[in-house]
Amino acid sequence: MTEYESVIQKGPATMAEERRERAVLVGVDRPGLAWPLESSLAELARLADTAGADAVATTTQRLESPNPRTFVGSGKAEEIAELARATEADLVIFDDELTPSQQANLEKIMDKSVKVIDRTALILDIFALHATSKEGRLQVRLAQNQYLYPRLRGMWAHLASNRMGGGVGSRFGEGESQLEVDRRMVRKRITSIRRELEHLSSVRSLQRESRYGSGMFKVALAGYTNAGKSSLINRLTGSEVLSYDKLFATLDSTTRKFELPEGREVTITDTVGFIQKLPTTLVEAFKSTLDEITGADLILHVVDASSPEFEPQIDAVHEVLDQIGAQKIPTITVFNKCDLLDADMFAGLNRRFPHAQFVSARTGAGIDVLIGAIAQAASATDTKLDVLIPYQRGDLVSLAHERCHIVTESHEAEGTRIQMLAAPAFASAFSGYLASDDV
Ligand SMILES: Nc1nc2c(ncn2[C@@H]2O[C@H](COP(=O)(O)OP(=O)(O)OP(=O)(O)O)[C@@H](O)[C@H]2O)c(=O)[nH]1
Ligand SMILES: [Mg+2]
């Protein structure tokens, strides 16, 4: 196995299991940045921490546009190499995505023991660490291989110069042909992972249909990583989805049934969080997980109200929702962690976002009102029905109880008389038993 082969096989995930690494963070301040540089770097430090590296130094540069060779200016690159040496860093992490050649050029400038990675590689690393399901792991491997593919050449040049002290000899030629072989191999691997994922996703959508029946109202949680999506689904449904104070704690989606107070059941799905500068390879690779959001009838956009960056976070989430084609799905903005706000902040938010919900998954505050809002959304397209269901059609009575909102119910000689509100998908099931058209 070649050196980078082993990186693919083991996944960079081994990072956190071994000793913690030391990282120098690099940020570039450019005109018109949507996100304050300092908080973006603070987030990068949290990402590094989650992946198993401590930020030992941070350095920034103001640039009109990135340098095509080394991203930062060449003098700055030398300075970073010096900083990494002085702080005994193992890696340098750039807050923006580097092109393969920028990454390779930077690695040449750094000492040999220092790795250069970017935000995307770091996020891929965390995903690799946290993926548990077969589908999740395949999705991560797909994104890793797509990320790796254009970088193979840089890695070969790097390996060749390492082994031969920079000299170009016959073995470099071998490396070149080896590069072709490996490119083909990675391409083949990408194709086979894709095929496997397509299979899994079709199996999953079939299961979804048969488990819950089509037409059931589907709620999906979406939001910035660490906003409290998993905590909220736990609070709503009494389940125990893993939630903890790390970024991207959840990668696999979890669907739970949830009974509204009126008796109607809906499904609610927790899924992977978003982040600013979310790598497009990840969005593509996680398509089937994200389908849980695009297939929903209602999105609860969970926002960490206590984050100083909640506004750019909201924008970042909207961007991803647009990217995956979910922008038209009815959405309720849910400000979570309201227990951490003081009275003034709370009042200010309420004024600015009059249509939002304000909750605390931790204390339970506001949850009942939120449930009311979900119920209202679920019944928005309901039609009123008055039916008389013969006693031998117990299945229809169950359907009415589980999927519709019962207004009145009585037992008559010929059957069960129910007045109810039913979603269009279910109304047709009762068409043969209408007692009257008007309730
Ligand atoms: N104070 C407070 N903390 C909360 C609240 N809800 C969640 N948290 C904390 O916020 C952190 C993240 O919560 P999660 O539920 O894991 O967040 P998530 O959105 O599922 O995060 P990812 O799965 O990583 O995207 C955890 O430490 C929770 O305990 C809340 O209402 N109040
Ligand atoms: Mg979660």
TrEMBL record:
Q: Which UniProt keywords apply?
A: Cytoplasm, GTP-binding, Magnesium, Metal-binding, Nucleotide-binding
Q: What is this protein called?
A: GTPase HflX
HAMAP family xrefs: GTPase_HflX
Q: What sequence ranges are listed for the domain Hflx-type G? A: 217-382
Give a short account of what the protein does: GTPase that associates with the 50S ribosomal subunit and may have a role during protein synthesis or ribosome biogenesis.
- Protein family (similarity comment): Belongs to the TRAFAC class OBG-HflX-like GTPase superfamily. HflX GTPase family.
**Major localization listed first in the record, in broad terms:** cytoplasm
Subunit-structure text: Monomer. Associates with the 50S ribosomal subunit.
Report the InterPro entries cross-referenced here: G_HFLX_dom, GTP-bd, GTP-bd_M, GTPase_HflX, GTPase_HflX_N, GTPase_HflX_N_sf, P-loop_NTPase, Small_GTP-bd
Native species of this protein? Adlercreutzia shanghongiae
Which classification does the entry list for the species?
A: Bacteria, Bacillati, Actinomycetota, Coriobacteriia, Eggerthellales
